[in-house]
Design goal:
binds magnesium ion, binds phosphoenolpyruvate, 370 residues, alpha/beta, Pyruvate, phosphate dikinase
Length: 370
């Protein structure tokens, strides 16, 4: 090996010569997209659109969910469409010529709604300070409405593609925004390459239904704008049921992206939001687990990924397969993904150089072992 001169770019170029795994980034704003590109990312493997719904937009979603009045709902959707079209325009422009996988809204419903506990505290404060009775009554009604929608296990509830099935107007709005932004850039002479990803799929009809909605919406926008739009549609594989029935699911997918965060959570039945919970450190201390499975991909989860890739190719021989969970930026996991035969890993922008290096090392080690 040549001496380390500190010239990271040269070392990364060598890694690029050997690696067969592509490296993309997880980004959801144009600044991070540009940063990923500067670090050598070959596209965006995951744009988490829920990150575009913070601040005021959260309020718009709450208005949409809590009102049955068609006009109020439509107005909320129109506002979201305007905002999202701008978001995607910026993302596709920053990644001109490279793929950008946009994932439709994924998080549990409660993340868009005000917290009933916070409302309760607010009501108590208003009552104690002699607040307006009308305002108090309004807040109480809101609290009761949100309380009635509470789920015992939100991460296993109304999230991912289930949101799009229950509220089809949301995926239509998002796909319309993606297609409109792409059409606009095409007319400006750029080369946007959006792809649409459906999250948390477990059965084929979920994907089939949302795929149909997306295809129809893309065709409408293409006709309206007078441009040709070829937008691939794929799915996350992040539930064990999806991995073991990947041959069926692949018949409706152009690509798979393994969401190893949720796949680890649902395979072990460990909550990904409570990794510091007492028992996991205890398991590590007593060596019941060799390492934290949320940081480095666990062999059992890797087996599901391998099964998903193999079955997926039976269902669709042209299927592209990547991974976009946190493990996509972990060197040990990257070795595993290389050996499984994934097409790419996708990780946070700052991990892109490390991922390029790890992918190069994995390729060299695999050759040496031949
Ligand atoms: C995953 O589950 O691995 C994933 C990438 O999706 P998210 O982390 O947004 O749930
Ligand atoms: Mg997930």
């Amino acid at each position: 090996l040549p001496e380390l001169t500190g010239d990271l770019d040269t070392i990364l170029e060598w890694a690029d010569e050997f690696r067969t795994l592509g490296v993309r980034a997880n980004a959801d704003n144009p600044e991070d997209a540009q940063l990923s590109r500067d670090f050598g990312a070959q596209g965006i493997g995951l744009c988490r659109t829920e990150h575009m719904f913070l601040g005021d937009r959260k309020q718009i979603i709450q208005t949409f969910i809590l009102n049955e009045d068609e006009d109020i709902r439509q107005k909320a959707v129109d506002q979201l469409f305007e905002a999202q079209t701008g978001d995607f325009y910026g993302m596709f422009k920053a990644m001109d010529g490279l793929p950008v996988i946009v994932r439709l809204l994924d998080p549990p419903l409660h993340e868009f709604l005000e917290s009933p506990r916070a409302l309760d505290v607010e009501i108590a404060r208003l009552e104690a300070t002699g607040g307006d009775k009308g305002v108090i009554a309004e807040k109480r009604a809101l609290m009761e409405q949100i309380d009635a929608m509470a789920e015992a296990n939100p991460m296993l509830g109304l999230r991912g593609c289930r949101l799009g099935i229950v509220y089809p107007i949301l995926p239509v709005m998002q796909v319309r925004a993606i297609a409109t932004a792409a059409a606009k850039l095409k007319k400006e002479g750029l080369d946007p390459k959006p792809e649409i990803m459906i999250p948390l799929v477990s059965v084929v009809p979920e994907l089939a239904k949302l795929r149909e909605v997306a295809e129809q919406t893309i065709a409408e926008v293409a006709a309206e704008q007078g441009v040709e739009l070829n937008i691939e549609i794929g799915t996350m594989i992040e539930l064990p049921r999806a991995a073991v029935t990947a041959d069926e699911i692949a018949t409706k997918a152009d690509f798979f992206s393994f969401g190893t965060n949720d796949l680890t959570q649902t395979t072990f039945g460990f909550s990904r939001d409570d990794v510091e919970a007492e028992f996991i450190p205890q398991y590590l201390k007593e060596r019941l687990l060799p390492y934290n499975p949320f940081a480095t991909v666990d062999p059992g989860v890797a087996k599901l990924v391998k099964m998903g890739v193999e079955l997926g190719h039976q269902g669709n021989p042209n299927l592209t397969c990547g991974v976009c969970g946190e493990h996509g930026g972990d060197p040990d996991s990257i070795h595993t993904f290389h050996n499984i035969g994934l097409d790419y890993v996708s990780c946070s922008p700052y991990r892109v150089p490390l991922a390029r290096l790890a992918a190069g090392q994995a390729a060299i080690e695999a050759k040496q072992a031949e």
